[in-house]
Amino acid sequence: MPDDMTKVLNRITFVPRAAALSPIPWPEGLAPRAAQTALGDDGSLPAADVLVITWTAAEAMALADVLTPGVASAAWTHYVKDFAAYEDQLTSRSPAREAKRLGEFHMAAIAGLTVCCFHSQLHPATDGPSLPAAAMAAQIAGDTGARLVITTGTAGAVGAGTVLGDANVATAIRSDCTTRLAGHPWSQELWATTALSDGQQKMLAAGVLTPLFAANSGQLPKEYAPRAPEITYGHTCGTDFFCIGTADDHYGLLKLDAATDVVEMDDFAIAFGLLASAGAPMLASVRNCSDPVMASASAAQLKLAEQLYESYGFATTASSAICCWALIAGLAQG
Prior knowledge:
The chain is an alpha/beta fold. The protein has one domain: Rossmann fold (3-Layer(aba) Sandwich). The chain is built from 10 helices and 13 strands. It has helices at 3-13, 57-67, 84-87, 95-99, 132-144, 198-203, 206-217, 253-256, 267-275, 299-332, and strands at 33-34, 50-54, 77-79, 103-110, 113-120, 148-157, 167-169, 172-176, 188-192, 231-232, 235-239, 260-264, 282-291. A hairpin with a 2-residue loop joins strand 4 and strand 5 (113-120). Helix 2 runs parallel beside helix 10 (299-332).
């Protein structure tokens, strides 16, 4: 397996040891709670107002701590509907092939809305070039009938001034697939996310989020998180190879799109899968910075980025999970 793909697979499957988030001081009446969870008779996901999709093992663990408290991601219900239709699109390095499922999920309740939290076992970075994650996105969105779909997880910081733990609530999702996924209609594309409502902007305000972020920001190293996490509103760039944001823009992420704030490898599949047809749900992308902007793309800096992810990727995901909560609570306000 090429070293690049080894890095990707390691991030997807890495399980932090003894990871736990500190209690978050939610506003009165707005604390997330785990809800009753069961598959439909045909294996479909339950109906939900909001669908939240996350990607790596560590991200799912942190999302569960925040949105399904008391129910760890390891206890989420397996989702295997139509798995056979995806099998020939998987590769030897696809987590879904080994797991023999598309993902796992659990239901939550926030501000009177029903939320389906879903951990995907499909990944554009490891699956075949037919982009099965896009088909899965359409399938699970159709199952739930969600009016808002949020794709969320860790990312590398790109924008100047961004620090470990910051969260980007994307205004657009860009694909920059130039290697194994090049040449498709979705390989070089830009999809706008849904404009935030007044209620969502209110819940994302610093006055609401600062005390929520503070509950776990102390777990982050001052060297790379010299201040409390903040929100940025830039573009999320998805690539088909492992890269990081660097001070000299080694990978040309800012040259391609100066509005880029984070880089990751999944969200473009959700955007393409959902926005390619009429009647699409609202779409949001929330990515927390588990890697700060690195000094360069040297082997030593790439290794350091991996070490920072393994040490702090779980804790930084608190930021994006809290932003997901804010988008849902804000949606409930109209």
